[in-house]
Amino acid sequence: MFLPNRNHKLKMTIFSINNPPNFEIFAEGVVIPIDKPYRWTSADVVRKVKFALQRKLKNKNLKVGHAGTLDPLATGILLVCIGKATKQADALQAEEKEYIAEIELGATTPCFDLEKEIDNRFPYEHITKEKVEEALQQFVGTQEQIPPIFSAKIIDGKRAYEIARAGGEAEMKPATITIYETELLIFDLPKIIVRMTCSKGTYVRAFARDLGLALQSGAHLTNLRRSRSGKFNLLNIIQLEDFEKFLVEN
Prior knowledge:
By secondary structure, the chain is of the alpha+beta class. The protein has 2 domains: 2-94 and 232-249, no CATH class; 97-229, 2-Layer Sandwich (Pseudouridine synthase), CATH 3.30.2350. Helices cover 23% and strands 34% of the residues. The chain is built from 6 helices and 16 strands. The strands form 3 sheets. Strands 1, 2, 3, 4, 5, 6, 9, 12, 13, 14, 15 and 16 form a 12-stranded mixed beta sheet that branches. Strands 7-8 form a two-stranded antiparallel ribbon. A hairpin with a 6-residue loop joins β4 and β5. α1 runs parallel beside α6 (240-249). The protein starts with a strand and ends with a helix.
């Protein structure tokens, strides 16, 4: 199975446990849709895959990267790019994403997810299913979103989260994003589950924050799973332990 790049000069093999490529073509460009484990960083996954492949192929110069960072508390599709496929990371990262987000209404945290403790509570009894569905539709379209301070955004040469964790303050500039679709899957106050599709650069944590404000309450993200990245979906996904097992057994 092949995925051509945007300028059609390269082809990348999409790795599948059921139909794996020959090891010789890894350097030519392979994309592995890994299910990023909970509390792992995207860089953790890249290092794990890189070292495992370097040992298997006896190639210390093999390039490995990823297309589209996932927060440590998120799971789901992380596209790990091998060999010449690393040149396609930007094009892959630019593709539309889909997320399944669990959001708790009536409470906020400094980082908009569970990395920090709840800092404020707000009434949520006035929120109805209809109000949530109406609010969700207001977010569909191109808009300016203020990223979380606890993010990897670069500010004066430093990551925003480094400034935040040091107790500093930083001005987060709005970024232009597009939310293509939103759907309320579960309404069970104070929790809701939302499916959304969006552009590169969208912070779902910030979306949760803004949704809470739109509902005249507060909100934070309690669970997040990336269910699609471009053409890759959960049918393509590979568990990290299954990939490691494949390398050992083949």
